[in-house]
Design a protein that fits this description.
This protein has about 210 residues and is mainly β. The chain contains three helices and eight strands. A hairpin with a 6-residue loop joins strand 2 and strand 3. The longest helix is centred in the first third of the chain and has 16 residues.
Amino acid sequence: MSTDNVVTMPFRLAFPEVFTAKAAIEGGKAKFGVTMLFAKDGTNLIPSLQGAGVLDLRRLAFAAAKEKWGEDKAKWPVGVRNLDFKSHVSPNGKDGFPIRDGDMVDWDGFKGTLFIRATSEFRPGVIDARKQEILAQSEVFGGLLARAQVNAFAYDTAGNAGVSFGLSNLQILKDDGTSFSGRQRAAEVFDAFGEAGPVGADTSSEAW
């Protein structure tokens, strides 16, 4: 069981795996997924688009825990029982809580953010800002602005208990020039070409 799906507010996209499933660890189950980066101060990256922010996702995670283990926290697994869902930030992602601090990792673009991983065993729907389906993997990369349809669920397997987020759909909203891949945009590499004249080889006599 899981809580209802919600659509998030815009976030910075990282580690998108929405065309090919990938296992988090060797021998693990392959899943599709995205990492959602939200500004710590709650800034909406595209103010005209509203949606669930970090506080809303905290509430959703708490609801998922209550759905699985009941209203009485004394009956919850010990590790989860002691978590403050209103403010806790996981230091390493190993305590069963889905929200982590971007300042605690040395990954491009994560500073000043809270980040959440959402995954699925099934390939999510992926569309662009005009609601057209995206079919090319090259069009979805870290650094884009996006929003997602997610749900929270609690798990308790072999003594490993916690709350996580599932990914249903992803919408790519905007490319504002930020890339976590280190690659340059085509517009940054090439000059414009118009009526100025033909393209030709450099005939400079300067020696190499």
